Request: fold
Amino acid sequence: MAFVNIGLYLVHNPLYNVFPSSKSQNTWPSNLYRHLSSSANPLSTVFPPCLFYLLNTQSHPHNSPMDTDSYSSLFVKETTFYNQIVLGTLLPENLWTPLPHLLQTWLRNYIAGSLVYLISGFLWCFYIYHLKHNVYVPKDAIPTRKAMYLQIYVAMKAMPWYCALPSISEYMVENGWTRCFARISDVGWASYILYLGLYLTFVEFGIYWMHRELHDIKPLYKWLHATHHIYNKQNTLSPFAGLAFHPIDGILQAVPHVIALFLIPTHFTTHIALLFMEAIWTANIHDCIHGKLWPVMGAGYHTIHHTTYRHNYGHYTVWMDWMFGTLRDPLEDETKNT
Reply:
């Protein structure tokens, strides 16, 4: 209901009052705060007033219309630097420099994302299946090469589509449409840590419910999420299954990262780093090795999700499943089995 009310507010108010353009002052937090804190609005009893006060008073460090363009140029400079590092290192200059900046960004995300996925997946599989043979995973639970090749095929087929989301989010940041800030010094370390906590909480909440609805809404499960759940046994799951989704499914589960940019002041570099860490994190939670590090939603919890389909929808931690009654603890399962 909370998100429905926010959506209705954004739809029924002029865009210039909601999303700041690079030419106008950032007034949307004030408008949103006044609407949400109204006694007539049910949201005023749902969200802590202090949170909206924070979002209202801590706006961009570049609120003045005079310096919006110069501040946005910091984001363009940063993404250009990333493009030069990746594309300049791996491709001949004449192949990528003529491309528009947005296409360069997509190409950089595609190459970097593919390398992170393949290298992290290979190193992790080599370590747990070969160097630590029969230590972490019993021999009969090691997935076949055919299963891992299929997972790589599904993930790489979806990778070009996955990379469209961060490319578009970077474009929106560069144009001043989000609440990103370029330097931690713009807000201070205390505010940075607070905002990061809010960002991670929002992402955890969003991914939990997105993931859960991909199960509960039958057409979404049938046409999208079932592609990932063909890996439903320990001997079919591997780190390479982490990104083996239907492309729309993978994008939907990453969307909370982008929505958060419009609501919570976010350090741009941290946002980019967290998006790429998703590839490593999803590899980790599909290796079937229970790390027993509470409250982390590790592979032990996620393996249960792949076998019961009704538990452990969370991403980083167990909190959302605990709050909404879908948590199933692997240690309790082991106790019952013994």
In short: The CA atoms of residues 132 and 163 lie 33 Å apart. The longest strand covers residues 180-181.
